[in-house]
Amino acid sequence: GAVVSQHPSRVICKSGTSVKIECRSLDFQATTMFWYRQFPKQSLMLMATSNEGSKATYEQGVEKDKFLINHASLTLSTLTVTSAHPEDSSFYICSARDTGNEQFFGPGTRLTVL
Amino acid sequence: AQSVSQHNHHVILSEAASLELGCNYSYGGTVNLFWYVQYPGQHLQLLLKYFSGDPLVKGIKGFEAEFIKSKFSFNLRKPSVQWSDTAEYFCAVTGGGADGLTFGKGTHLIIQP
User: How much helix, strand and coil, in percent to the nearest 5, is found in chain B?
Assistant: First the structure.
């Protein structure tokens, strides 16, 4: 199946700093990518839909100025957590959708904000 | 908005036992349904999906699921589980023009040898 990578896999940062997470589709082009958040022992929650060349669509309750999404190419979407705080600590997972409407998931990024 | 309910949060079975994990969704329109698996330390992988057609869908590793529209259900089954099936299983749905997946809370399956 198609491969999606995320970088970094794990990041620890101080409160108030910004963190950028990259999501790449390695062997296919994805006009649409998705960002999810997973709290410990809970399910994945959709944060936003990232469309190549246009603004992301955010789910209700997700602050677009807090979680900046850029989808500059057909293989790369980035999520920047701005002015991170401890409550932003979580597991962030991206997925990329292929032409067959199937989503392929990245391995996730563990963010810890001190 | 749609929601997904998985009935069992933790399931423990012995090898060779039969498995059925329940999944119900709430949305009255056309939906696409998925089951994903997450093995320990690995990322989500698609087990099977239903878009249309035969409501009994077969996936990888011997798994199958049946879409019952009248019951808003999409239960996952496997006739004989193996130790390697130990994992977290997520039911998910898209529909209503939304492209992102709505996930259930997951079922942690443990297979005892």
Answer: 10, 60, 35
